[in-house]
Structures are given as C-alpha cells and as structure tokens.
Amino acid sequence: MSSTASGTNGTWRNWGGNVSVRPAREVEPASVEELVAAVRGAAEDGLKVKAVGTGHSFTSIAATDGVLIRPQLLTGIRNIDRDAMTVTVEAGTPLKRLNVALAREGLSLTNMGDIMEQTVSGATSTGTHGTGRDSASIAAQIRGLELVTADGSVLTCSEKENADVFAAARIGLGALGIVTAITFAVEPIFLLTAREEPMTFDRVTSGFDELWAENEHFEFYWFPHTGNTNTKRNNRSAGPERPVGPVRAFFEDEFLSNGVFQAAQWVGRAVPATIPAIARISSRALSARTYTDIPYKVYTSPRRVRFVEMEYAVPREAAVQALRELKAMVDRSGLRVSFPVEVRTAPADDITLSTASGRDTAYIAVHMVKGTPYQRYFTAAERIFTAHEGRPHWGKIHTRDAEYFAGVYPRFGEFTALRDRLDPERRFQNPYLRRVLGS
What is the DSSP pairing of strand 77-81 with strand 86-90? Predict the structure, then answer.
C-alpha cells in the first residue's frame, strides 16, 4: 500500500480513492519549529490547518481547503529509553519503519494493526487497532505526546503532565492539535505462533467466546454468500522461529491473497452474478498453516487490492448476534458482496474517544472493492451496528454525527470541552470534524 500523493494539479487523494481535496497550500515541515510557523502563518491568513499521513482513512478526517501539513520529513526515532522501556518517535514515521528499527534494537510494540503503511500519528489519531484479548490498540500503548496547538504552542503531555490532554489526545482526531512526536511503551522482542485455519461460520459463532478466551489474539474473516470463515490465532511462543517459507509466502500472501483475489474482484465487478460462486471458491483457496515469527511479521500482511471500508465497534457480548444479523441481511437482500467481513476484538481502555473506551469490544468490518457501489450494503450494515450501540472507526466510512456520539461515548463532553479550550477558533476544523464533534 502507498498513499496517493498530490498530483500536478494540486489535488490530494486518499488510498481508497473516495476522498479528494485541493488545499490552498501544502507544507512539508522539517522540524517542529517549521510546523509551528506553518500553524501561525495559517492563522494570520485565516486558513484552516490539517495534517495528513499516508491517506489510509476512508473518511475526510484529514481533508482541508486550507493548509495541508505533510509530515514525511518529521520521521525517525528520537530516543530509546531502555530503563523505562519506551521509544519516542517523530510523528511522520511510517509504522513499517518503526517496526523494522525496533526489531534491530531487539524491541517491539505489544500489539499492532494488520497493515503498517500508516504514519504513527495518523494511525493513533484515528484509533487504529489490531486484535487482542488483553492488549489494546496502538494508541493504548502511548506513554507521552508532543503536539502543536492552535496558538502555536508546543505542548507535552503524559499521565503526569497535562493529563487531561493526554487522556484525549492519544486518539485526538486531529481536533486538538498536530502531533509532532509520540512516546510508545515497548518490550523485548518476542515470538508469535500464528495458526490459520478454515472454520465454518456456525462453528466460529457458536464457539466465539471460547476462541476469544483461549487465544491472546483471535480474528476471523467470514466470506459472504458462504458458511465459511478463515480464522487466525496468534499466541506467544518460546520458539524456535519458523517463518513462512518464501515460496509459500509468495504463493499464498501475494499470488492468492492479492493477485488472484484482485482478478476475482475484477470479474465480480464486471459480472456481479458470479460473486457468490467466486466467494465459495475464495473461501476454500487458503489451506491451514502454522508459523512462528517476530510480531510485526505475524500481525501485519500486505493489502494491495484497493477497497473502501466501514467498521463498527460493538460491545463484545453483542458481536455474534450482530454478525448473524449481518449474514441474514446479506442472504435476503440480493446484494453481491465480494469482500470478506473481518471480525476482531479489543479490551476496554481509558482513552476518551477510543472505540473501546470503557467496554470490551468486538470490531466488525465490511468492505467493497474500490469503484464498486457500496452505499446500499454499508447503510444496511450500519443500521445493524448502531442498533447494538456501535461506535464507528473514526477513519472509516460512516454517517453518524455529534448527537449520536454523545449517546455512545460517556466522556464525549470531556473531549469537546477540551477542544473548546485548545482550539476555540477551530483552526483544525473541517466538515468531518464539524459533523462528528459539533461546531
């Protein structure tokens, strides 16, 4: 995956291709001081300011017609503190570079999402997560933040310093300031054994609680129009290291999961009636496998087929019911859904606007291939998710607004009050934030 960079006409587009914007100007600051100057300059010119990472959000959370901050020069590790077991990293650093650098130092994040193309600030600001029984999102691993606020001040925060800002800014939606550096908790690098196995939909749903309880990291993909899923269980291992061989990795992760899957999507777009048959074939294409490797090589995988996505976080105890309702809706609707539905979990955390704030959570994500009409499917899915008090991922397609969020986030008022204090003139405002946070 790579971001879709601005073209010669000055238009920036996101990775999914569903958001585009033409900012008044773009700035690529090479230091915090240059970023401060850009924010103050925008204020003098009466322009809004937004920072954008690699464009992996499907919402317009980073879109602006004002000043677009591109942080690709704000990269690299500032400091590794082995006594505190933390690493401080510049906000524009891609997760892939961080993971590789940490591995060289014999260190690792505890948990991560399933791709690593995002910048650390983009991933955390939108609530990127993986799956975990006990270990939570990337943002939950943050121990300190540095951000530039609307008046050009540089604010540092942690549990001991500006604690109210820290509670909210770990997933700040770009509404409280522009993050310039993040301090993460790390641990000595470890091994994970991944067990990937096909399983029927009925078996997964009837045994969901047991599968969740018995594994440190459990997730599965259900293939619509079938009764089939592919499951993945990741657990810590004493070794030895047994990675997927290069030939098998290419065949399964590149040829089948990306190349053949892309071709199937093209066929499905051209002839929608073929999608159920393609789904049945796809759901049986990958065989069971077990391998042991360092964390980022197990947690993450290449995603080269472009798509758009909606993901909702529901209370974990509601996951099976919501998924069964989703399956029933697809079966009776006449929809043709060519992309698997992804299901993951996270423990409750204490971040103000985290989708897992205050409750154990399950995530259900629906996708459609880029260029395919998705509105009918996503609308029907969203109706199911919201009936279970679902919270949409901040970086993925949804239609909810501030009134809805005030009802599903008990601490929503804390966040908006903090925003009023840090950005009273709404320097970091855009239409998306106006909808989800209020004016």
Answer: antiparallel
